Amino acid sequence: MATTSSTLTREQIIGDIAEILQVPAAEIGDETNVLDVGLDSVRLMSLIERWRAAGAVKADLVALASDPVVGSWVRELTADAAGTADVTEEARR
Q1: pTM for this structure?
Q2: How far apart, in Å, are the Cα atoms of 20 and each of 5, 15, 47, 90?
Q3: Which residues fall within 8 angstroms of residue 69, CB to CB, at 6 or more apart?
Q4: Phi, psi dihedral angles at 69 (to 5 degrees)
Q5: Angle at 9 between CA 87 and CA 31, to 5 degrees
């Protein structure tokens, strides 16, 4: 019986950022610095809470704010999902 953890994808992360900034997702790319396009700390915390609820336990204000580029966030948040899945699978063995 497999359990799933975070299922965040690049598309979901970009979609969430676009939604909170009220811009089309097409305007957000891997090289986008979210601070340059208007993301503030309050909205960042809203995103972090949304992503934590989706299972991204490593979604952290300091880590994400220190490298506010979308591609870095995607790597961090999707690597978390893969790492959590690996740990869960290993624990079942």
Answers
A1: 0.79
A2: 23, 9, 8, 36
A3: 30, 31, 32, 33, 34
A4: -100, 135
A5: 115
Q: What is the tally of helices (H) and strands (E) in the chain? A: 4, 0
CB 69 within 8 A of CB 12: no
Phi/psi of residue 86, nearest 5 degrees: -65, -45
For 6, the token pair is: 């975070």
Read off the amino acid at residue 60.
D
pLDDT by residue, tens only, the chain of 93 residues:
334 455 799 999 999 999 999 999 999 999 999 999 999 999 999 999 999 999 888 888 999 999 999 999 999 998 855 554 444 444 444
